[in-house]
Amino acid sequence: MSSRMTLAPLQPVSGRSDGETGAAPLIRRPLELSGRAVRAVAAARVAYELAAQHHAVVHVVSVVDTRSAPLPLPLDIALAMGDAIGSTELHRERERSVRAELSGALSESIDWPVRIMLGTPSAAIVQEANHIGAVLIILGLRRHGRLDRVVHDETTLNVMRVASCPVLGVVTEMNKLPRRILAAVDFSEGSLVALRTGGAVAAEGAVLVLAYVSAMSGFLTDEGEATIHELGVRAGFEKLARELGDDGLMFDHVVLHTAPPQSPAQALLEYADDVKSDLITAGSVQHSRLDQWMVGSVSAEIVRNGRRSVLIVPPRRRA
Q1: pLDDT per residue rounded down to tens, the chain (319 residues)
Q2: Are 71 and 148 within one domain?
Q3: CB atoms < 10 A from the CB of 229, how many?
Q4: Of 19, 117, 280, 315, most Cβ neighbours within 10 A?
Q5: Residues 185 and 145 in one domain
Q6: Which residues contact 27 (CB under 8 A, 6 or more apart)?
Q7: Total number of domains constituting the chain
Q8: Are residues 138 and 228 in the same domain?
Q9: Is the alpha carbon torsion for 13, 16, 17, 21 positive or negative?
Q10: What is the pLDDT of residues 151-178, one digit of tens each?
Q11: What is the domain-level CATH number for residue 187?
């Protein structure tokens, strides 16, 4: 068992009502972030930069993970759990401790509100995000192996599966807002939402590279079919260009061709390495429980790889 430090939903200092739109629609209500040790610090630093850029206030959730707690409980765990469910003064002391740790790690005076929770980190994060209407969850991101899947230690991926708002997984090397973003696109509405969300978390003057992975390149042997496919992709990029031009975003685009056994996720990761992208974004299209569990095989593979920060944007709620 370990204590996880989660920066959670943030309250806006200034913002619009839900019915209004603007250049930065992401930061109008709370942000949320999580991670442990150095990963939590990287996530906290990005949250700090976003809060400054969008005039938002970060809320923190500190989750005591009780999944693997032995019985009887060791003293430190028992005390932590006692703090989590104890008196108001114990809560306040623990909250002050979390703020002090963040202040020391960021070398900034941190006065963010803190919420102490007990249970499974991913469930606690999503619960709090839903409770306060979070518009972004930020978590520390690391590489995941088979053992992590066996012991269900994939907090970031589990949050992405069920969160109703965008989720940003931050690698330890990312200590500032992204300046070069690789956006996986399939020309759907979800792609456009993910692009705009990526622009909202980007540094000023950042460049977006739109990447379409042509998974059918090896099967379009007929010249006519290949031409139709190429024209469709070109039209898709032109449509996105018009949409993004209205937002004032700088962008480029690329078509990545894959051939078995290379997966679309591997193609995106290799290209991200080549162009030194700070962040990979993707729109999620899952609606069924099976799709929700898979997140989308491409997104899940990119998240588990853990080499690049990842932003996953869920589909809009159906009316």
Answers
A1: 333 334 543 333 333 333 332 222 233 344 554 435 567 888 899 999 999 988 877 888 888 777 765 555 555 555 555 555 556 777 788 888 888 988 998 999 998 888 888 888 899 999 998 888 888 999 988 775 554 544 446 888 889 888 989 999 999 989 899 999 999 988 888 778 888 899 999 998 888 999 998 865 455 556 666 666 777 888 888 888 887 776 667 788 998 888 777 888 899 999 999 999 999 998 865 544 444 444 457 888 898 888 899 999 987 655 4
A2: yes
A3: 16
A4: 280
A5: no
A6: 10, 12, 15, 50, 51, 53, 54, 55, 56, 135, 136, 200
A7: 2
A8: no
A9: negative
A10: 446 888 889 888 989 999 999 989 899 9
A11: 3.40.50.620
Q: What integer pLDDT is reported at residue 269 of this predicted model?
A: 94
Same domain, 117 and 247: no
Region of 276 on the Ramachandran plot (φ > 0 left; ψ -120 to 50 alpha; else beta): left
The amino acid sitting at 206 is A
For residue 296, the enclosing domain spans: 180-313
Residue 148 lies in a domain: yes
Of 124, 147, 170, the position where a domain reaches its end is 170
Residue 203 included in any domain: yes
Does a structural domain hold residue 11?
yes
Q: Are residues 156 and 242 in the same domain?
A: no
Question: Could you give the strand order of the β-sheet that contains 207-214, starting from the edge strand earlier in sequence?
Answer: 114-119, 56-65, 3-12, 31-35, 136-140, 167-170, 309-313, 279-283, 180-184, 207-214, 250-257
**Statement to judge: residues 209 and 267 lie in one domain:** yes
158 and 192 share one domain = no
Residues 234 and 185: their CA atoms lie apart, in Å, by: 12
Whether 19 is covered by a domain: the verdict is: yes
